[in-house]
UniProtKB/TrEMBL annotation:
This is Uncharacterized protein. Keywords: Isomerase, Magnesium, Metal-binding.
Amino acid sequence: MTSSPAQQTETQDQSAATIERLKVLISSDQPMKKLETKLANLEVDLSWQKIPQTLGGLEDTFTFLQLKPVFEEAEQSGADLVIALDTEYNRFTLGVRKFVDGKFILLNIHHISLLLARLLLENQGALNAKRSIFVTDLLDKLFAAGQGQIEMLANLPSPLEEQEAFQQAGNGDTLFVSENQEIILKGQKDSLGYLLSQLVLAAKKAKSENRSLFETLLGIYHDYGFQREKNLSVSTEDATQKAFFKKIFNRLKKKPPLLIGMTEIISIEDLGSGTLKNMLSGRTVASQSPGAEALLVQLANNTRFLMFPTEQKVNFFFTSQGKLIRRDDFTTLNQQFDQRVVKLLSEINRLALEK
C-alpha cells in the first residue's frame, strides 16, 4: 500500500522531530527519579547508566578515565550530553561532544561555572555569586559585564551548606562555587534540578542550531579571553617536605628572585600582609584579594600561580592565558599550558635548592 504525499510529509516531520530531540545520559550510583522527571519535562530523551566508580571523598573530583565507559556508551547510543552525579555529596559534572557528532570531552568546574554564570545572568538579570579562590577568575569578568556582584573567598570548600559564607548569604539567589566541584544556587529550593535544567536547555538550544554545548563555552572564551586553570597539591605531612616548601614560600615572600627559570616575575601579591609588589617598578600597593597565608605570583609569560600552604599540603593553582582563534586550538592550548605548568613547578622547586 502506497502512502499519500500528506502521510509521507507527516512521517518526515515526525522523524525530524525525533532527530532534533536532545539525548541525555545520566550516570550516578542510583537512579534519580525526581531529577529525571524534571528533565523529562524539558522534552528531551533520557537514559541512565550506573556510574563505574563513585567519588571517594570531598576532595576527589570526576576524571575522564573514571567516566570513560559512560562516554563510550553515550557515543554508541547517540547521546548529546552526559550528566555524571555524585549523590552523596550532591556534585555533578558534564560530558559534552566537542562537535555535534564528535567525541566526548569532560568539562571541569571552571567550564561549568562559566556556562552557568552566563546562562543565569542572561535569564535572571540580578545575581550574586561567591567563588573559591581556586575557581576561574573569568567569572569576575562575566559578572562585571552582566552587572552582577561576585566575591572571591580564600576558603570555600565542600560541603557548601556547612560554610559560614553560605549560611549568611541573603535571601536573593546567590551562586556558590567551591574548589571541590560543588555548585549550589542558594535561593532555589531544588538547586541541582534547576541548574541542570538550565544546562540541558542550553544544550537543547545549541543542538537546534547544529552546535554543541562545547561551542557555547568557546563563545565565552572568545568574548572574555581563554584561560587554562590547573590545581595541583603536594602533601607536606612529612617534616622534610614541609620544610622544603616552607623554604620556597619564604624565599618568594621575603627575597624573591627576578626570574623563575627563564621567566621574569612581574608581581608578587602577599595575601597575608595584604600587599602587592610590582617587581619591575618596586612599587607596593594594597592587595584586592581576601586575606590568607598565601602568595600569588604573576609571570611575564601570561602565567600566574597561587601558592597556598595548609597544615597537611601545599596547593598550587596555576592559570595560563592565551588566544583561542579556532575550535581545535582548545585542545592544543590546554596541552601546551599543561606542559608549561609541569616545567614551572620544577623551576619553583629549584628555589628551595638555591642559596
